[in-house]
Each structure stands twice: as C-alpha cells, then as structure tokens.
Amino acid sequence: VQLQASGGGLVQAGGFLRLSCAASGLPFSMYSMGWFRQAPGKEREVVAGINWSGNSESYVDSVKGRFTVSRDNAKNTVYLQMNSLKPEETAVYYCAAGMRGRPIMSYSSYNYWGQGTLVTVSS
After folding, report:
1. Are 30 and 52 in contact (CB under 8 A)?
2. What single DSSP character describes residue 63?
C-alpha cells in the first residue's frame, strides 16, 4: 500500500493550497480517508475525514468553513482544499486510509499512512 501526498509548499497567510493524496495497492473505494497534520513539537491531529463513498465528511472545528475534503474514487485520490490559511497551520500534512465503517475522525481508525507533505504558512 502506498499513499503519496503532494501539493504542500510555502504560502502567505490568507492564501490557499490544495493537497492531493494518490493511493495504490488497496481497494480505494472500500477505505475511508483522513487528513492529519503535525506541527513541530506537537502531536499529530486529525484535520478532516471522508467516508468511502464521499457522501460524509467531517472536520476539526478549527478548519470548518475553510477546508474541504473530497475524493475521486475513479482516480484513487483524495484531496484537501485549504483556504484562508493561518501561520499556526504550518505543519506536515499526512493522508491516511482506514477500512470503511470506522469513525473517520479517529486516529485509531487508520491503518495506512502517507509520507506527508509540508505546508508552511508565512505571516
């Protein structure tokens, strides 16, 4: 199983980025997908999750209204659109895959993890 995250980079506060995560080696449409982030010196936290079909999404309160998670099962890819980014959201962002039916906002639901992509938001 491989999860390849991309799309990170340097952006000014208030800007936007779109992260992608391409999955291979697993039946993608059977898996819920999540986005997590880990800032320096902090624990990894869940940002957003989407169920296997894409008809259910959840977000951590701090990103609601600014971030959107989506997926394209035909392309085995999940996305995270991030708008109005804040400096405190500088972190390595990870995508993860977990068997459907498990809570999509729970760290323990996820079996497979990507390598992460760095997002740096300058003030």
Report:
1. yes
2. G
